[in-house]
Amino acid sequence: MALQVVWFKRDLRLADHRPLVEAARRGPVLPLYVVEPELWRQPDSSGRQWSFCREALEELGQALAERGQPLVVRVGEVVTVLEAAHRRLGIAGLWSHQETGNLWTYARDRRVAAWARERGIPWQEVASFGVTRGRRDRRGWARDWERRMAEPLLEAPVALPPLEGIAPRDLPTAADLGLASDPCPERQRGGRRAGLELLDGFLHQRGRGYHRRLSSPLTAFEGCSRLSPHLAWGTLSMGEVTQTTRARRAALATLPAEAAAGWPRALDAFLSRLHWHCHFIQKLESEPSIEVLELHPATRGLRISDPERLAAWSEGRTGVPFVDACMRALRASGWMNFRMRAMLLSFASHHLWIDWRDSGLHLARQFVDYEPGIHWSQCQMQSGTTGINTIRIYNPIKQGRDHDPEGTFLARWLPELAGVPAIWRHEPWRMDPATQAASGCRIGPDYPAPIVDVAAAARQARERLWGLRRQSGFGAAADAIQERHGSRRSGLPPTGRRSGGGRRRPSRTAEGQLCLDLGLDPESASRSVT
Asked: In whole angstroms, what is the distance from residue 140 CA to residue 144 CA?
């Protein structure tokens, strides 16, 4: 019996699953998911993430059982589980998707690779998303992404021969894994059915005007695709989302102009963000240390750990309403649109001067759609530690007035401000004592005063960061970073510039050319699919 083990990781689906299809062609398949307690003890893991993952696994298990062979669940260390399976059954081949995860999963995969080599078991890791393993730079990356996205989608095997005498076993609860209570009442549900419903609803109803609705938290919760957790946990594949979107885009050409109005630009914007999704994950794939080490050496040791400021920011009590409202909404839902994610990171890094690893870990646990490649690349990008991106310091008061002018979002998530006149909601500390009393919101007792002077803190951060960039040797190090991670839409070095790329300047950034090619404004260029 040439037993093939398909190790499910963050690819919790049967459709368009090449490892499963290829394994099934070669012999009986043992579909395996290993619940790794040590993984769930990592500081970027949370109960809300496990809840979503568990729901997806339940649906995956049902789909496999309908094909004849249930999902086999084991709790423990992967190498130990594989070794036990090999001794009992004899493993002829191990199959999985490549995973661009955190440093813990990177080290775990190295252990699995060593175990497989020692046993003479071929481990076939199939490329995931549009990410390419082993790249030294970005030449040709965009072409490879397009080619990958155009590959035919694979249908799931119709049947899998059952394996006798192997108990599937139940999935553990969050408490079984030692995860802390993590209430998230508005969390999205896991599972492929939910993902397909979201995709269909977005492409046919909710997506019209996506490009206009994605920036404000007032409209983004409904106007964005909300597919990010399904891509992060693999209930949908990037290829099927891309191809389904492109098919819908093509079908619009057959509709009357009035019926198609607003759709083409919306779907073009969404497709560009699918590209950016993989662009950022590629950064971590190429340089795993992005999770813990600043890309540019001059920015190392720049910020501090400040538990008090971190707690105020994490709990939504900084006294800056738009920041606090976004943080409380995130805590309740496990999701936030990308512009607001960037603002939260910017405020923590620049106004509060908190180390990006501290703020990044809190946000990682809050995000049900936590994708390490996107998340840690964004943490560094928004905190100004890459050395190649424009220094972007969001003004949270301006962001609030721009995206929630009447304070509707604030009133929902900050009930202590619900009685405050709209004109004062974004800066309630400016109310005089009589207005505070009349509105039922006293600054201090009812809602905190701002933890920092927003304008002064931004000015100080800007001076510090630009001071670093003026130091001797900063540009040479930035050139090397750009050569490794900078975007090249055409897959070739930019015309008229040396292959090293050149230093990233305020008005010309490493992602700037791709930003223009995709029709994005520079401020939105850091966004991925949401």
From this structure: 6
Cβ contact 64:71 at 8 Å: yes
What's 125's DSSP letter?
A: E
Instruction: List, in order, residues 6 or more apart from 461 with CB less than 8 Å away.
Output: 349, 350, 351, 353, 393
Please, what is the angle between helix 321-333 and helix 307-314, to 10°?
A: 70
Strand partners, 91: 3
pLDDT tens-place string over residues 24-39: 999 999 999 999 999 9
Orientation of helix 321-333 relative to helix 356-366, angle to 10°: 40
Residue with tokens 């977005």: 202
**Residue tagged 């192997």 (tokens):** 166
pLDDT band at 390 (very low <50, low <70, confident <90, very high): confident
Q: What is the DSSP string of 89-118?
A: H-EEEEEEE-----HHHHHHHHHHHHHHHH
Q: Cα separations (Å) of 221 from 5, 54, 178, 329?
A: 39, 23, 31, 10
56: nearest Cα among 86, 12, 122, 121:
12
Considering only residues 408 and 489, tell me which one the structure prediction assigns the higher pLDDT.
Answer: 408
At residue 223 the predicted structure's pLDDT band, cuts being 50, 70 and 90, is: very high
Give the CA angle between residues 309, 312, 314 to the nearest 5°. Answer: 105
* Coil vs helix vs strand at 136: coil
CB 295 within 8 A of CB 387: yes
In the numeric block, which tokens belong to residue 496?
């008229």
Confidence (pTM): 0.92
Give the neighbor-by-neighbor strand order of the sheet with 3-8.
Answer: 72-75, 29-35, 3-8, 91-97, 123-126
Tell me the C-alpha distance between 400 and 405, whole Å.
Answer: 7
Task: Indicate the average pLDDT of the chain.
Answer: 91
Which residues, 6+ apart, have CB-to-CB distance to 66 below 8 Å?
none
Region of 72 on the Ramachandran plot (φ > 0 left; ψ -120 to 50 alpha; else beta): beta
